[in-house]
Design brief:
The chain is mostly helical. 70% of the residues lie in helices and 0% in strands. It is built from nine helices and no strands. Helix 1 packs antiparallel against helix 2 and helix 1 crosses helix 3. The longest helix has 26 residues.
């Protein structure tokens, strides 16, 4: 029976790793290393709970653990700037596809949202969960989840219009396309 448990768990992790890692990355504001740590912590907890949740909803269980761990982690540690000896080279505008640039920008601005607002927006629009399920994962009433989501999207929209990408010259500033991805977030509803 132990081998069957291991095989089922391995299949689940193999199938859902990419999506769960991306969710963790969004919840941590784009920090890949913190996301990997959070996902590892969540999967360890899932392993011990596997006999209980394997037949029900293991992904929902992991999602809830990730959201709670991200909130705990944000309260516990300071994740601000760290001094470095050399400044990194600024990104070149136009070197990457516009979609990748926009996603990177969105992740950076998402990191500026408070933890619960970020979690609500990510769960509602990236994970495409209904409001009731978002509220259940966050452990709050549906009205609170709606409020967190609404305020998060409004602040996200404001930050996206205010944010200016670093540019080397006025020519490259003219080549930056206006942000439209926040509007597509609302169309998911």
């Amino acid at each position: 029976m132990g081998r069957l448990r291991t095989d089922e768990f391995d299949r689940f992790v193999s199938a859902r790793w990419s999506a769960l890692h991306h969710l963790a990355r969004l919840l941590t504001g784009g920090d890949r290393h913190r996301a990997e740590d959070l996902l590892q912590e969540a999967l360890v907890k899932l392993w011990f709970a596997w006999p209980r949740v394997a037949e029900q909803a293991p992904e929902a269980y992991v999602r809830r653990v990730l959201v709670r761990a991200a909130a705990r982690s944000a309260r516990r540690r300071w994740w601000g700037e760290q001094p470095v000896e050399e400044m990194p080279d600024p990104p070149w505008v136009g070197d990457e596809a516009a979609v990748v640039d926009e996603r990177t920008r969105l992740e950076a601005v998402l990191a500026l949202l408070p933890t619960r607002q970020r979690a609500a927006v990510v769960l509602r629009y990236y994970q495409d969960l209904p409001e009731r399920q978002v509220a259940r994962v966050l452990g709050c009433p549906v009205g609170t989840a709606r409020s967190l989501t609404s305020r998060g999207v409004a602040r996200l929209r404001r930050l996206m219009t205010e944010s200016v990408e670093p540019t080397e010259s006025a020519e490259s500033a003219e080549s930056v396309a206006p942000v439209e991805s926040v509007e597509s977030v609302e169309s998911v509803e």
